[in-house]
Write a structure and sequence with these properties.
The complex is a heterotrimer of chains A (about 325), B (about 150) and C (about 325).
Chain A (H helix, E strand, L loop, with lengths): L3 E11 L4 E8 L13 E8 L2 E8 L10 E6 L7 H8 L5 E5 L13 E7 L4 H13 L3 E7 L8 H7 L4 E5 L20 E6 L2 H13 L7 E3 L13 E5 L5 E4 L5 H7 L17 E10 L7 H6 L2 E3 L4 E8 L2
Chain B lengths: L11 E6 L8 H9 L4 E5 L5 H9 L5 E8 H14 L6 E6 L4 E5 L5 E4 L5 E3 L6 E9 L4 E5 L4
Parallel strand pairs in B: 1-2, 1-3, 3-4, 5-9
Antiparallel strand pairs in B: 5-6, 7-8, 8-9
Chain C lengths: L22 E3 L12 H14 L1 H4 E3 L4 H18 L4 E6 L2 E6 L4 E6 L10 H6 L5 E8 L2 E8 L8 H4 L4 H4 L8 H13 L7 E10 L10 H4 L11 H4 E13 L4 E12 H4 L3 H13 L2 H6 L6 H14 L1
Antiparallel strand pairs in C: 1-8, 2-7, 3-4, 4-5, 6-7, 6-10, 8-9, 9-10
The chains are: A alpha/beta (about 325), B alpha/beta (about 150), C alpha+beta (about 325).
């Protein structure tokens, strides 16, 4: 349902031995859309076995506007997106990407913003710091890496934001660790943002809460896991009538319900508006919508009948 | 309004009251002492806005603020606390005595005062009869007064 | 003469109207539509803005960047979809915008507020029939932070400005509204750049005023008492609001463009399927909804009128 953008790889820069920066431009030479601090795009990578969807934070630290930049870290033993970007993507290649989305926006109320990054977790903060600098708002960055050489964007950050950034290198002499106790120093009105390995997010979130931070002031970036695209047939049982219905591979649950005179209200038929939501009493759901929150999806009690499907058999509260 | 309760798990508490609101905070002070959590307790008296704003803004994250007193006092201190960086998630308020509410006339935007029991009032600015609604604007700090055609 | 075909029809194939999100993807990504009422409605808008600036326009200071984004979006739509009516020339950041229908040309430096006499949102709103509402997404909520509103369906921009989505909708009476308001808010906050949506709202109006503001209700609301079976066809108008929803990717706000269309019932029912369906829907409409839509005082009269017309077919 969602529109895509065609982009061409204009430039590839090795930021460190494991991090590459890709500069993307519109394939038709127009300007790519603007984006707000903390935004990401989904990239659609052509794989022999099908399209691989991967999300990356976007920023633009090049001197020209209308471009997207992403930074990809090649993880040890990566078999997915990062290996593809590092090994297969060349300057001049054309790819599909989504429009920018923002699930990690800056707080509006905050009096000041403090960013905690480790490793490649720096990427969303590049656009957030740029936005705050433009608005002349107050922020600081605490950034951990193995060493100066392994620290992506070290030169850029230390030159652009000399008074706002603090680096923590764990290797070598005078190693300095980034610790959650740092959170004790922030004045009232501070919002904190975490991005990096899961244990960093966990440790800092737990610490902030134990110090009395409201959840409202704590923000963390997590990317949703890629969605499976292969659809299966499944069955549903209607709780009130006891009727059993088969949903074949090429039909949606909504279509089958309507065919059988079960009038579920609906509108967009694309998993975006929430109108055709049905309650699920039993069974496992494969969610394909872009409407329910992650928490609602995990609860397994509701689904959008126009796009989402069951694994095996579902019992619907209808 | 939320129940006025002691919120556990904070680094520090600040208790601010006027002479009428202080008593209600004594239990909370007691609790903070038992929990060995640092706190400041202050009867505000004639402290200036500048003093309060500076004091508030020097607090660290994890501080929780209690305000107890009469409506005008609460309004003033809440505003200062918000400007200093406290959010609604970091404070609780307790209002002693009557709250004077405001009603905006839907035709002339004039502001009228009313008390809880009023269902209708006549706009003192343009003279039309207004129905008191529960539709509230934080920007105007007022409820909306509707007119009817009957 | 205006035929029924000029009206966007708000009902799907069901004869029971359910208050719901009823949003659909907008396939032609145009925020703006011009009708044959363009010049009349533009001049009415400008007159209202001049006479009642406080009623028709509001903006919070932090919306300036989003306002420019709206100017960019709307001007681009105008020159893309109506190239014979609007022109844009860009020279070193200087924009020269020409409206060939009003024979006006505006020259300004994009992004520089001082080069326009009025705020950017107010400026561009005076070239389109739509009302423009900006809701900023901040701290997990949507706030009505700016708007140019000349043709409201009985609400007040002055009063609702800077409210969040739930506060704005708090007067909607009890029909499972909390759940629905939450759901619609969730939907709005997930709108993505590049994927605009459309919603249609309908109501009836005794009289034909587009500027049915809450502030002037005691004037135009009187007509509700005058509706009879005999005059309903002429007096009562079917009103459709087409809302288009766009994510502004830079400011992360949502732009609502609201185009209000009106047609007298006698023209509306010339098309027999519309008469049949609307009669069925109005008959079955729950009380809470027709109260909310302000139809209660004259619903019976309109039903009598529609029934008599049905018998003639």
């Amino acid at each position: 349902m969602h529109s895509k953008l065609q982009v061409r790889v204009r430039n590839i820069i090795e930021e460190t031995s494991t991090i590459k920066r890709f500069t993307l431009e519109a394939n038709d030479h127009s300007m790519l859309p603007y984006f707000s601090g903390g935004s990401h795009i989904t990239t659609f990578l052509p794989y022999p076995s099908g399209t691989l969807e991967r999300q990356y934070s976007i920023f633009n630290i090049s001197p020209e506007s209308g471009l997207f930049e992403i930074a990809v870290h090649l993880a040890d033993g990566s078999t997915g997106g990062s290996r593809f970007w590092h090994q297969n993507v060349q300057v001049g290649d054309v790819l599909s990407v989504s429009y920018p989305k923002n699930y990690f926006p800056l707080s509006f109320q905050a009096k000041r913003h403090v960013f905690y990054a480790a490793g490649i977790g720096i990427t969303p903060f590049l656009s957030m710091m740029a936005e705050l600098a433009e608005k002349k708002s107050s922020f600081e960055l605490h950034y951990a890496a193995k060493s100066k050489e392994q620290c992506g964007f070290y030169d850029y950050i230390s030159k652009t934001y000399p008074h706002q950034c603090h680096f923590y290198f764990s290797n070598g002499d005078g190693a300095k660790r980034l610790l959650p106790t740092q959170l004790l120093n922030h004045r009232i009105g501070t919002h904190v943002y975490f991005c990096g390995p899961e244990n960093l997010i966990q440790d800092f979130t737990t610490a902030a809460k134990s110090y009395g931070y409201p959840s409202f002031n704590i923000h963390a970036e997590r990317f949703a896991p890629p969605q499976k695209k292969e659809q299966q047939a499944f069955q549903v049982k209607i709780k009130r009538s006891g009727k059993q219905l088969d949903i074949p591979v090429n039909s949606s649950l909504l279509e089958v319900l309507l065919q059988h005179g079960i009038n579920v209200p609906f509108s967009c038929r694309a998993g975006g508006c929430g109108t055709c939501e049905v309650r699920v009493v039993k069974g496992q759901i494969d969610h394909y919508d872009s409407f329910l929150t992650e928490e609602e999806q995990r609860s397994n009690h509701m689904m959008l009948s126009c796009v989402s499907r069951g694994k095996g058999r579902l019992v619907l509260d209808l | 309004m939320k129940e006025f309760l002691y919120t556990k798990g904070k680094r520090k508490y600040i208790f601010c009251a006027d002479s009428k609101g202080a008593e209600l905070l004594y239990n909370f002070v007691q609790q903070a002492m038992e929990d060995k959590v640092p706190f400041d307790f202050m009867i505000i008296g004639d402290k200036s806005d500048a003093f309060l704003e500076h004091w508030y803004s020097q607090q660290k994250m994890g501080t929780f603020l209690y305000l107890s007193g009469q409506w005008e006092f609460i309004k003033r201190l809440k505003k200062l606390a918000l400007e200093a960086g406290f959010s609604e998630y970091e404070m609780q308020i307790n209002i002693v005595g009557q709250i004077s509410k405001k009603l905006v006339c839907c035709e002339c935007y004039g502001v009228n005062e009313f008390i809880d029991d009023d269902l209708h009032l006549t706009c003192k600015h343009c003279g039309i009869v207004l129905e008191v609604s529960s539709h509230y604007s934080r920007r105007l700090e007022a409820y909306l007064g509707y007119t009817s055609i009957s | 003469m205006i035929s029924h075909f000029s009206l966007p029809y708000p009902f799907s194939d069901s004869n029971v109207y359910k208050y719901s999100n009823n949003a659909a993807l907008l396939h032609t990504k145009n925020a703006i539509e011009l009708t044959d009422r363009y010049l009349d409605e533009i001049s009415l808008k400008r007159e209202l803005l001049t006479k009642h600036p406080e009623r028709c326009y509001h903006s919070s200071p932090h919306t300036m960047a989003a306002q420019w984004e709206i100017v960019d979006l709307i001007i681009n739509n105008l020159v893309t979809y109506y190239p014979d009516k609007f022109e844009l020339e860009k020279k070193d950041g200087q924009w020269i915008f020409s409206n060939l229908l009003t024979k006006e040309t505006a020259s300004f430096k994009f992004g520089d507020r001082t080069t326009l006499e009025i705020e950017p949102l107010d400026f561009i709103g005076r070239h389109v029939q739509e009302d423009l509402i900006l809701m900023m997404q901040r701290d997990g909520d949507l706030i009505l932070d700016a708007g140019q509103l000349c043709f409201p369906a009985n609400w007040s921009l002055y009063f609702n400005s800077e409210m969040n989505f739930k506060e704005i909708h708090s007067p909607i009476p009890g029909f499972q509204s909390d759940f629905l308001v939450d759901r619609i808010l969730q939907f709005l906050m997930r709108i993505e750049a590049g994927t605009p949506w459309e919603r249609k709202n309908w109501s009836l109006m005794a009289g034909s005023r587009l500027d049915s503001s809450l502030e002037t209700f005691s004037e135009w609301g009187q007509a509700r008492k005058r509706v009879t079976k005999e005059n309903a066809g002429e007096l009562v108008h079917f009103r459709v609001e087409v809302q288009k929803l766009f994510r502004l990717p830079k400011s992360n706000g949502i732009l609502f463009t609201i185009h209000s269309h009106m047609l007298s019932l006698e023209k509306f029912i010339q098309h027999t399927p519309w008469l049949e369906q609307f009669y069925a829907i109005l008959r079955e409409l729950p009380k809470a909804i027709y109260d909310y839509k302000g139809i209660s005082l004259y619903r019976e009269q309109v039903l009598d009128y529609l029934e008599a017309e049905l018998k003639k077919r």
